[in-house]
Structure formats: structure tokens, C-alpha cells
Amino acid sequence: MASSKKKIGWSSNIWAVASAAALISCLFISHYQGVGPHLYSLMSLLPDIIWQILFYVCLVVAVLLILKHANIKALNTDLFDNLEKILKIFAFVMFAITFTDRILLDIVSSAAEAVSASTHRDLDFLAKMVYLVIRSSKSYIRGIAHTIELAIIGTVVGFILALLMVFLRIQNPTERDSEIVQVLKMIGSGFTRIYVTIIRGTPMMVQGLIIYQAGFSIAKALFPTYTITQINGIYSVFLASAITVSLNTCAYILEILRGAVEAIDKGQSEAARSLGLSAWQTMMNVVFPQAVKNSIPAICNEFIINIKDTSVLNVIGMFELMFATTTIAGTYYVYLETYMNTAIIYLVLTIGLQALMNVIAKKLDMPVQHGVPSSN
Question: How far apart are CA 43 and CA 96, in angstroms?
């Protein structure tokens, strides 16, 4: 009978978590002693001497737990086994108290200060972050809305274009084809290869600049009597950005679909052709439905990647989240706090969307993605 392997994780090494909790509690206590209490401080209820003692107690607890599991013979006793449970509880309680005070209540205190403040100059780092979010909420909301809108449009349009182009990409001329069909297949396959190479071999920032300037030049040539404002009304920055994201996404989804199509058993295509289905009917009714379903997790990842990659479009004046960030930073002359806010917003968006995609994947009986996908 084969023995089942026990999965080793943090739950089986809770002593390490408790040790880390005790050490982090030491850091929080040191921070309290150095900075002092904030507006709603919980730690200020005890005198400083108590926290000084608790600092050394937490340090001793962490050292004892580490030494116990480093196989120190003097600590491998029944007495210390019972004591270890108490040490773990103490470590977690101290962490809960210090974390609540130094992080959670600090955020609440900073928010209260930011709401009542008339200027950001005398606020601390965290309060400045909250102040900027409150004072610039409209800019942040507008930037987030345009970012999500561009990602949705780019992913949907890119997917539709990729569906059309993948049929050209997988075409291989055969001896049964006429010479015209052979040439057309080679042209179609060659075009998609060149397209994918160019798009995947150049940054989206450069693509956005080229598409915006090229589109503006074409619109200006078609309407020579129009002013720049009127031309921008026809060929807007948003339109150029949507085209850029769509074309960029198309190249990546095209390769995803191509891999999915080639992964389908060729016997299914041969069986469909033997039943009288044409090549197009075989693709649309047999191959593509399976390939698209298998590609859904990767296509969802492209959507999440687009949330982050649209940040480069601020170079052409697209008011998305990164453009809003630079505007806010330039308005208040506060840079690090503004960039931290934006990083948190991007992190919440990507993690939240990844969790939503995993819920959908489970309902569709598809593999769940772990972690946030990296940029293209």
C-alpha cells in the first residue's frame, strides 16, 4: 500500500509563524517607543516601562521557539512542550495588539487627521496618502474607470481580431490546394507571423506613440480645413489608446489560440472532414470551441495584464490611472505618497480581478491560476 505524503506548509510549522509574530511585535514596540502614540493609540494605555519589558519578553519568546525546533537537547522536554503552547499564544496575542495599534489604528488616526486638515504640509506619510485620496478622489476614480474601460475594450476587440487571424495563422498549403489557394494561405500565414513579431517585439509605449501620431496625420490629411481641436474630436486620444491596446492584445491572444488549436487532437479534425465538413466548418464547429474554452484562463490573464500595461499610454495624454497619478503628484508636489497610493490601487485591482477570474474558472471546471500574471 502506497504511503500518502503529508503536505508540509506553515500550518505544520506554526512555531515559525509564532516566532515571526514575536519578532514583528518587537519591531512594533520599538516603533511605538520611537514615534510615540497616535490619535487613537491602544498601546498608550500601558506605561512605557511595561512595553520595554514586553519588548524583551517577545524577543526571548522568539529565541526560545527557534532554539526549541533547532533540536537543542535542553529544551526537548515535556515541560517545555507544554510551555511552548503558552509561548505561541503569547506571541500571537502580542502581535494582534501591536499590529492593531501600529497599523490599523494608525490608518484610522491618519484618516481622521487628513479629513480635518486644510493642507498636507504638516501631515505624516500615511496621513498624506489618505489626504491625497480624499482630495483627489475624482481624479483617481476617473483614472481607474478609464483604465478598466481600456482593458475591457482592448481584451474584447483583441480577442475578436485574434479569432479571425488565428485561422490565417494555422493555414498550411497542401498539394490538394490550387496554386491560388496555396499562395493565399502563405500570404495569410506570413502576414500574421510578421504582425505577431512586430507587436511582441516592440513596447506598447512606442506602439501607442506611432498609432496616435499616424492616426492624427491621416485625419489631418483627410480633413485639411479642420482645426486641431476638431481633429482631436474625430481621432481622440482614447480612440488611439483603444486601438493600441486592441492590436497589442490581439498578437498575444493569437498565439494563445494558436497553441490551443494545435493542442487539439488532429484525429477530431480528420473525423469531421471525413463526415463532409469543410475546413472552415471543422474549425468553427469542432476545433475552435474547444480551443477557446481551453484558452479562457490565459485570455483572462491578458485582461489583468492590460490593467497594468495601460499605464504606458499616459505618454500620449490618455487620462488613465498613471496619468491621474502624475497630475496629482504635480498638483500637490507630493510624489512618493502619490505613487504608493497608485501602487496599492493597481495591486487591489489585479488581485481582486484574479480572485474573480478564479471563481469563474472553478464554476467552469477550469484550472485556477495562482498569483498575478506578469506583464507582456
Answer: 12
Q: Which amino acid is at 79?
A: L
How many CA atoms are closer than 13 Å to the CA of 166, on its beta-carbon side?
A: 26
For the cut 80, the answer to whether the pLDDT of residue 202 exceeds it is: yes
Contact 32, 105 (CB under 8 A): no
Phi and psi at 22, nearest 5°, equal -65, -45
As a whole number, the mean pLDDT across the chain is: 87
* pLDDT category of residue 1 using cuts at 50, 70 and 90: very low
Cα distance between residue 196 and residue 54, in whole Å? 61
CA–CA separation, 288 and 297 (whole Å): 15
Residue 341: which of 172, 132, 115, 156 has the closest Cα? 132
Contacting residues for 195 by C-beta, under 8 A, at least 6 apart? 165, 251
- Sign for the CA dihedral angle at 9, 14, 15, 20 comes to positive
> CA torsion angle for 144, 146, 152, 155 (degrees, to 10)?
-110
Cα dihedral 255, 259, 262, 264 sign: negative
Return left, alpha or beta for 9; rule: phi > 0 is left, psi -120 to 50 is alpha, else beta: beta
76 backbone dihedrals φ, ψ, rounded to 5°: -90, 65
First to last CA, the chain: 47
Residue 175 or 253, more confident:
253
Average pLDDT over residues 129-146: 93
Other C-beta atoms lying within 10 Å of the C-beta of residue 79: 8
Across 137-150, average pLDDT: 95
